Amino acid sequence: MSEPLFEIRDLKLHFPIYGGLLRHQIGSVKAVDGVSFDIFKGETLGLVGESGCGKSSCGRGLLRLSEPSSGEVVFDGRQVTALSHKEMRAIRTRMQMVFQDPQASLNPRMTVSEIISEPLNEHANLKRRALIARVCELMDAVGLNRAFLNRYPSSFSGGQRQRIGIARALALNPDFIVCDEPIAALDVSIQAQVVNLLKDLQEQFSLTYLFISHDLSMVRHIADRVAVMYLGKIVELADTELLYQRPSHPYSKALLSAVPGAVASRRADAPREVLKGDLPSPANPPKGCNFCTRCPHVMDICRTTEPELKAVAPGQYSACHLND
C-alpha cells in the first residue's frame, strides 16, 4: 500500500441543538462521533451505510466544508484542522467535491463554460483564450460536446449535469476528490457510465477518491477498500473483496444480505439477516455499542462497553465484541 494522503484520527462533527425560551444549547447531533482511518494515495475508499449514518458529514469534515468539533485531519503531512482560512484556501485546489444532486449543485443562471471556469477564476490567473481552452479540455475529459459551452444546466440530462460537476471538480488538477453519492440521483442506466468515467479519470489524472454511497454493488465495482459506517462510527474497514466475501461485523452482514449475490460465501437459500427497529437518533445514541439496539447477537457487554475497531484478519478491522 502507498503512503497515506489523508490521516484521520478521532474526527468528530457534533451539531448543536437549541431549545427553550432563550434558545440555549440543549444537546448535539453526533453526526460523526470519533472516526479514525487512512486514505492512501491513488486508492478509492468506499464509505457505506444507511441514510443518516454520517457519511456525507464525514466527507465534508475532511474538506472543512463543515468545521470538525474535534480530532485531527492530516492531508499530505499538513494538519488541516489547524490551518487558518487563508492557509486553507491555498490547499483547497488539491481537494475537491462532487455533490450528490447535480441539479442542485449547479447554478441555473450560469452557462457550462461559466460553471467549469469558476474555480479557475478564483484560483488561477488565466487569460480569456487560455481559460476557454482549459474548459474545452475538461469537457473532452468527461465526454461533453464542446458545442454545449454556452448552454445552461436545464438543457442537460442528469448524467450530463453530473459530468459538468465532475469537470468543475477537475479544473484545478486536484489530488483528492470526495464523491458524495454521485450516482444516487441518476437513472440506473446512467450510473455505470458515471462510475466508469470516474475510474478512467482516476487512472488518467492519478486521483484519490472517497466514494460515499449506499449502493453496495457499485461500491464493489469502484472501491479498493470499504469502510462501513453506523450512527457516526466506523464499524468495519476492510479490503473490498474481503468484506464482500467474509463480512465480520453483524451490521455489515445485514447490509450485504440485502444485496442479492453480494456475499460469495452465502448460500442462495440462506435466510436474509433483516434488522429490526429503526436507526437510533444521533442526538441520543445508545450506551455501549451503537448497534446494540438492533443487533441479533447482542450480549450484556454490548450495552455497557463500546467496542474498539481492531484487526480481525489481515486487511480487515471490525468493532464488535463477538471478535474478542
Could you outline the blueprint of secondary structure elements for this entry?
Layout (H helix, E strand, L loop, with lengths): L3 E16 L4 E17 L3 E5 L6 H8 L7 E6 L2 E2 L5 H7 L3 E4 L13 H12 L4 H14 L16 H13 L5 E5 L7 H18 L2 E5 L3 H7 L2 E6 L2 E7 H6 L4 H8 L52 E4 L2 E3 L6
Parallel strand pairs: 3-8, 3-9, 6-7, 7-8
Antiparallel strand pairs: 1-2, 1-4, 4-5, 9-10, 10-12, 11-12
Structure, explained:
There is one protein chain. This protein has 324 residues and is of the alpha/beta class. The chain has helices at residues 55-62, 85-91, 112-123, 128-141, 158-170, 188-205, 216-222, 240-245, 250-257; strands spanning 4-19, 24-40, 44-48, 70-75, 78-79, 95-98, 176-180, 208-212, 225-230, 233-239, 310-313, 316-318. A hairpin with a 2-residue loop joins strand 9 (225-230) and strand 10. The model has no long low-confidence stretch (mean pLDDT 91).
Descriptive keywords:
single chain; 324 residues; alpha/beta; eight-stranded mixed beta sheet; four-stranded antiparallel beta sheet; 9 helices; 12 strands; 29% helix; 25% strand
Spans of 5+ residues with little confidence (pLDDT < 50)?
none
Order of helix and strand elements from N to C terminus = EEEHEEHEHHHEHEHEEHHEE
Percent helix: 25-40%
What is the 3D form? globular
Percentage beta strand: 15-25%
| Gyration radius, in Å | 21 Å
Oligomer: single chain
Number of separate helices: 9
* Main beta sheet strand tally, sense and closure: 8 strands, mixed
Number of strands: 12
The first-to-last residue Cα distance is: 27 Å
Q: What integer is the average pLDDT?
A: 91
Structural class: alpha/beta
Spatial arrangement of strands, main beta sheet: 6-7-8-3-9-10-12-11
